[in-house]
Amino acid sequence: MRSFLKKCLNILYPRCCPVCHQILENQKALICPECAVSLKPYEGPRCMKCGKSVAQEEEYCSECSQKKRAFTEGRGIYFYDDRMKASLLRYKYYGRREYGDFYAAAICRYGRKEIERWKADLLVPVPLHPSKQRRRGFNQAEYLADRIGAFYGIPVSGRVLIKKRKTKSQKKLNAAERYRNLQNAFEARERLDGLRILVIDDVYTTGSTMDAAAACLLEAGAAQVYFLTVCMGNMG
Ligand SMILES: [Zn+2]
Ligand SMILES: [Zn+2]
User: Fold this and answer.
1) Cys bridge to 163: 20, 57, 84, 127, which one at CB 3.0-4.6 A?
2) Within this chain, do residues 30 and 126 fall inside the same structural domain, yes or no?
3) Four-point Cα dihedral 186, 207, 120, 77, nearest 10
4) How far is the CA of 53 from the centre of ligand 2 (A)?
């Protein structure tokens, strides 16, 4: 019965490729064969803190060498280029929830080494403000965290960290404004004493959101805060 229902749904709402947006010929695949070849995770030298690409001889990106980070370490899988921007846009705003299955699988696969090394006790998605989540219908980061947690057998909680204050869109703000915009935006609802937390989000750009979330988790007692994201901005 379930597979019958699934077949009907696939006819009504066929799954699409998260990169080229064409209907997938193989409805069980997460990405089309052409895009599977052309979309590659970043494998070059990385900032030891945030995982952004750096020149071979550099340890830290310009942002992390200027600023103390609250998080311990993290990385993004793909570059946040035009096609990934378009992909995430459709995932978040145009109902292409199945793209999340592809993103989660990519984090599980390409983040494996880090996940095994960091030994997180708990996965925490970056929260949305409740009014924003109602409008969007789901939290894109929680959708990913649920799948990654299920794959690795790590508990997930979308409740320990909440967004209590609405914040302006970060896109047009500079670094100092981003920082101010996010101060006191998050709140931890539980004590997290001694826990190693892995935060999940869709994109890492300047790191101001991740820093604010990590600072809040540390204040609640977390021992370490790591992060993994689907995409990361270019060299800082
Ligand atoms: Zn494709
Ligand atoms: Zn960095």
Assistant:
1) 127
2) no
3) 130
4) 8
Sign of torsion over alpha carbons 82, 87, 89, 92? negative
What is the CA(85)–ligand 1 centre distance, in A? Answer: 15
Domain CATH number, residue 154 = 3.40.50
Query: Do 13 and 65 sit in the same domain of this protein?
Result: no
pLDDT by residue for the chain (236 residues), tens digit each? 567 777 776 777 899 999 999 999 999 999 999 999 999 999 999 999 999 999 999 999 999 999 899 999 999 999 999 999 999 999 999 889 999 999 999 999 999 999 999 999 999 999 999 999 999 999 999 999 999 999 999 999 999 999 998 887 777 888 778 777 787 899 999 999 999 999 999 999 999 999 999 999 999 999 999 999 999 997 54
Give the number of domains in the chain.
2
Q: Quick count: other Cβ atoms within 10 Å of Cβ 169?
A: 7
Which ligand gives the minimal distance to the CA of 63? Answer: 2
Q: Looking at the structure, tell me whether residues 14 and 109 fall in a common domain.
A: no
Q: Which ligand ends up closest to the CA of 73? A: 2
Give the Å distance between the CA of 206 and the centre of ligand 2: 9
From the CA of 13, how far away is ligand 1's center (Å)? 17
Kindly report the CA angle at 218 between 131 and 228, in degrees rounded to 5?
70
Residue 121 belongs to domain spanning: 45-232
| 105 in the same domain as 1 | no
